[in-house]
Design brief:
single chain; elongated
Length: 141
């Protein structure tokens, strides 16, 4: 089923792209909130990207990836490592959501540093997934 693999790759590209874009949106929202001096509502663009783009793409990527290894019967040592890297990406995704909640509640302390930490976590997961997928043809079974 090449269409399923294409769907999985497309969803993964959108998810990874949004994980790389969210830190910039959160940092921008943080700067706007600090400059305003008054409590404002949710950061609209960061919230939109998180809820309308990143989360659906993550769910579609995970669901289609699960279908891929069930349908094709793919198993191996690399798959466990890849799933661990996906867990790291999910953790980064959750961190970005938590940081947006902190901004909405008016807690600005350590948001900038935590955003950088979540970005490093996301980059680590993305690079690990790409490395493992590209190394898979070496037959790690």
């Amino acid at each position: 089923m090449p269409w399923l693999k294409l769907f999985h790759i497309a969803a993964l590209v959108v998810w990874c792209g949004s994980l790389l874009y969210l830190p910039a949106l959160i940092r921008h929202s943080l700067q706007l909130r600090r400059d305003a001096g008054f409590a404002q509502g949710a950061p609209p663009m960061a919230r939109f990207v998180y809820t309308s783009i990143a989360t659906p793409a993550a769910l579609l990527a995970i669901f289609s990836g699960t279908l891929l290894f069930i349908v094709h019967g793919v198993m191996g040592g690399w798959l466990v490592l890849k799933l661990m890297a996906v867990v790291v990406m999910v953790a980064a995704h959750g961190c970005f959501g938590w940081l947006m909640l902190r901004l909405e509640q008016g807690h600005f302390r350590f948001v900038g540093a935590a955003t950088l930490g979540a970005l490093v976590l996301a980059l680590g997961g993305i690079i690990a997934v790409l490395t493992l997928v590209l190394a898979k043809p070496l037959d790690w079974s």
